[in-house]
Amino acid sequence: RRIAILISGRGSNMASLIEAARAPGYPAEVALVLSNRPDAEGLVRAREAGIEALAIDHKAYSTRESFEQALDAALRERGIEFVCLAGFMRVLTNWFVERWQGRMINIHPSLLPLFRGTHTHRRALEEGVLVHGCTVHFVVPELDAGPIVAQAAVPVVPGDTEESLAQRILVQEHVLYPQALAMICSGRARLENGRVVFSQGW
Ligand code: GRF
Fold this sequence. Notes:
Layout: E1 2-7, H1 12-21, E2 29-35, H2 41-48, E3 53-55, H3 64-77, E4 82-85, H4 94-99, E5 104-108, H5 120-127, E6 131-138, E7 148-155, H6 162-185, E8 189-192, E9 195-198
Parallel strand pairs: 1-2, 1-4, 2-3, 4-5
Antiparallel strand pairs: 5-6, 6-7, 8-9
The site of 5-O-phosphono-beta-D-ribofuranosylamine (GRF) has 15 residues, from α1, β5 and α6.
Keywords: Purine biosynthesis, Transferase
Catalytic activity: N(1)-(5-phospho-beta-D-ribosyl)glycinamide + (6R)-10-formyltetrahydrofolate = N(2)-formyl-N(1)-(5-phospho-beta-D-ribosyl)glycinamide + (6S)-5,6,7,8-tetrahydrofolate + H(+)
GO molecular function: phosphoribosylglycinamide formyltransferase activity
């Protein structure tokens, strides 16, 4: 399956997907990296890896819809079948989400449904949870509320700061995201009536 990765920043999850997709037999091919920020570090990393990397600057569009139409056109022109959001920091409208529903996933740095939205590590520390983590989920119109494909739990340890916790979780994100994408693209995880159904043998 031809996939696109949407980013806004450094693109470390993007890099882990690109790396994983190089393995023989991996069921997805990274055909495009797209950023809404022209200065995203991840664009440089993608080009270095030989992947087409495109910036569509949301500031150049007067409405969310016109920006998303440009995104959608770029994806369709390249025959993209599946979209991975990886640190993509624009909220998507229902129009775009519905167009890609069942064909778009995101990685979120918390154990959903806890800590939807931003600053998840800070909030986890404030709440005093002792287990935190990351989640790969299908994207639905409601933010960070889609059906869960995969999760990894990470301990919070004494003395943790937002940064140390983020770093410990990021290591797990880089393992989890390629696994979750492979499960979907190989048909081992699929969406049925708004829930993720897993086949035996994973
Ligand atoms: C990751 O923590 C991801 O979970 C969140 O944004 C961060 C992106 O980091 N959605 P990177 O750009 O993949 O390095």
